[in-house]
Design a protein that fits this description.
There is one protein chain. The chain is of the alpha/beta class. The chain is 39% helix and 17% strand. It is built from nine helices and twelve strands. Strands 2-1-3-4-5-10 form a six-stranded parallel β-sheet, sandwiched between helices. The protein has a two-stranded parallel sheet with strand order 6-9. Helix 1 links the parallel strand 1 and strand 2. It is globular and about 55 Å long. 45% of the residues are buried. It binds NADP nicotinamide-adenine-dinucleotide phosphate. NADP nicotinamide-adenine-dinucleotide phosphate binds next to helix 1 and strand 4.
Length: 299
């Protein structure tokens, strides 16, 4: 049994999901939020010292090494933050019977499937980032503390580095964009992930000895090209007074946009387990995109 849920520690402070969690988890307890300046996940001693000082009842780890391409050049740092740190957090959580909530990614898969990935599908990462995230999941499961691993995909929001903000910047500067049209996934708004996380954690008050791996992504699917087109259309609808220079958004194959890390061609996750166990279902990605624009006063 884990202890009363009154002290919640969020890791990742400035990150897309962590930022939203600071609002959605506020009603569930007393929040402490740490960024890399306050707790360095690449430093095992730092992790142990800070966690033992704070003594959280719930740790929500939304921090990660997320630079997918750069990871190919610095695998040790990526491994330390994404693979080793979750195992250390899990050991500390087991020590105090805290619940550890952690995010993972569809990059644990190779993308060769043509139907949505289940939690039980065998992982086969294509690059350093995906392999490190898979190793982090496995470390947590091996330690066997109370835990929830939430795999999500194609995250965007109004802060940090993400595809949506990149497209809006490029669309303001250029008349033509070339966007990959043969990779498929479900763009998922950071706020809907944070809201769903709060719903799930609230329910763990009833079943505190939980261990589980869950997919958690928006409903529907599109390509990066489809996402870019919707971003521009919905942005123009939401902000008719703001000018975007872009006139054409051309569909290109992945082969015309090579990256250091290979991406899965198919990233869609099957969300039926989180619906069955928690009654949680994220909206269709197009609806969330429109809602996200409506919620932003300034971009
Ligand atoms: N972004 C996506 O498309 C995507 C897709 C699937 C899954 N995910 C997963 O979802 C989770 C959250 O992703 P996100 O997009 O919200 O992340 P993000 O915006 O890239 O933020 C990551 C955060 O991790 C923190 N961090 C990095 N190195 C650290 C270190 N050594 N010690 C402590 N903190 C460190 C950073 O803190 P500072 O700002 O202080 O450096 C940053 O705020 C991650 O587990 C990620 O793998 C993301």
């Amino acid at each position: 049994m884990i202890k009363d849920m009154n002290k919640i520690l969020i890791l990742g402070k400035q990150g897309q999901i962590a930022w939203e969690l600071q609002m959605t988890l506020a009603t569930l307890g007393t929040i402490t939020v740490l960024g890399s300046q306050e707790l360095d996940l690449a430093n095992p001693e730092d992790i142990a010292t800070k966690i033992r000082q704070i003594q959280p009842d719930i740790i929500v780890n939304a921090a990660a090494y997320t630079a997918v391409d750069k990871a190919e050049q610095e695998p040790e740092l990526c491994q330390a933050i994404n693979a080793i740190a979750p195992g250390i957090l899990a050991e500390l959580a087991r020590e105090s019977q805290a619940l550890l909530v952690h995010y993972s990614t569809e990059y644990v898969f190779d993308g060769h499937k043509t139907s949505p990935y289940l939690e039980t599908d065998p992982p086969q990462p294509l690059g350093v980032y995906g392999a490190s995230k898979l190793a982090g999941e496995q470390a947590m499961i091996q330690v066997d503390c109370p835990h929830l691993i939430l795999r999500t995909t194609w995250v965007y929001g109004n802060r940090g580095k993400n595809f949506l903000l990149t497209i809006l910047r490029l669309a303001a500067e250029r008349t033509e964009l070339k966007i990959v049209a043969d990779q498929f996934g479900a763009p998922t708004w950071s706020r809907s992930i944070a809201e769903a996380t709060a719903q799930i954690i609230a329910q763990c008050a009833r079943d505190r000895d939980i261990r589980g791996l869950y997919n958690l992504s928006a409903a529907g699917k599109t390509s990066w090209h489809g996402f870019a087109s919707q971003i521009v259309d919905r942005y123009r609808e939401a902000y008719p007074d703001r000018h975007l220079a872009v006139q054409n958004i051309l569909a290109i194959p992945t082969s015309e946009y090579p990256t250091p890390a290979q991406r899965p061609a198919y990233s869609v996750l099957d969300n039926s387990k989180v619906l069955a166990d928690f009654g949680v279902q994220l909206p269709d990605w197009k609806l969330s995109l429109a809602q996200s624009f409506a919620s932003w006063e300034q971009i």
